[in-house]
UniProtKB/TrEMBL annotation:
Record's keyword terms, sorted: Cell membrane, Membrane, Transmembrane, Transmembrane helix
Name of the protein: Putative Mg2+ transporter-C (MgtC) family protein
Organism of provenance: Fontibacillus solani
Primary location: membrane
Record domain MgtC/SapB/SrpB/YhiD N-terminal: where: 20-149
Amino acid sequence: MTGMSSGIWHITYLDMTIRILMALLLGGIIGFEREINNHAAGFRTHILVCVGSATIMLLSIYGFGDFANEPNVRMDPARLAAQVITGIGFLGAGAIIRTGSYVSGLTTAASIWVVAGIGLCVGAGFYFGAVLVTFLVLVSLFVFQKWEKYMLRKYRRHEMNIKMYDRQEILGQIVEELGEQDIQIYELLVQSNHKTEEHLETIIVRLSVKLPRENKIVNAVNRIYNYDDVLSIEISNLFNLSKKLN
């Protein structure tokens, strides 16, 4: 391959530079969104994935152009690209974290996978597809994220765990407090926990709730947490507050 040659199996150095820089730009745009939201795979990771994918695509198409005219050689531009799509899975898997029943990092893993696809598009010169996908990914990460949070808060049930001393009257006050903040309770389960050094029985109250606006959630948590008999409050994906036992 020469810097000034052209043709279906050859590319100029200028075109190659443009494609690599475009991969850097598009991957960096998506990575920047992940970075400002404090995700494990951020700005530099997405740039490296996109630039690397574009490089492999360029290699797959043009790296063996000198052998194109050989009678026993069959050129297959997709051979290395297919391996990128398969191999990028290990990097995405590293961004997925499981904590109990909660799994995080799936969106970041998906963004790494799609950035690899964008890099392949740029490397192949499929600019329109690369730019269009980048735009749609940004819409998904920015716009759909806010819409998803709104819909989840409106329709999704959350698990609320309250660890407290075994005081039945306090439990009634907690239920009343939640009702005043428009927090709907669907299930309530009381589990015996253990005795403290003061020989006081502790229980864990597990509630399945639907949460209203954020300010009402904060108000309810703050009020309940101020009860002397309440030791900790946890709401799945939202709050995790605890007091030290004396």
